Amino acid sequence: TLIISYICIFTLLGYVLFNNDIYKDGYGFFISVPDTMFNVYVLFTTSNFPDIIFPYWKIHNWTIIYFVIFLMLGLYMLLNLMLAVFYNSYKQ
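Structure (tokenized):
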């Protein structure tokens, strides 16, 4: 539930930050809340995240702050926490 709430918080934050006229050049990653949630999930899994990050980074360099915070917290804290819980359960 922690990871799902983390994705939901960054979904709403990304939707608010990137759903304006500056970023509507046909990228379509943050147009609606369901599209935003799917693309934030893609960012979380890092399966094709440069396609989402680079178009926004080209427009404004400060947008990388949102993506770096999201990836650092998600990949290096939450996924390691989940791995530790699974390992502890397996060990017992």
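The mean pLDDT is 87. The chain has four helices and no strands.
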